[in-house]
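Before relying on records like the one below, remember that each one covers exactly one chain. Contacts with other chains, cofactors or solvent are not represented anywhere in the record.
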Amino acid sequence: MNQKELEMLDWLCPQDVNPEENQKSAVCLRQAGTGVWFLDGDDFQEWQLSNNSALWIHGIRD
């Protein structure tokens, strides 16, 4: 790989990011009832009952 490709790869998959630790931290910070508003919402319910549909979820990355 050339230098530009290595830089892109490092940007996409930084070596100092540990997904397992991030997941553990997120689980510890979760509050009871988190996301219930979303799961009970009309958009999610409609998607859940649909066949061959996609659900795009986006938000602000912290």
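The longest helix spans residues 19-29.
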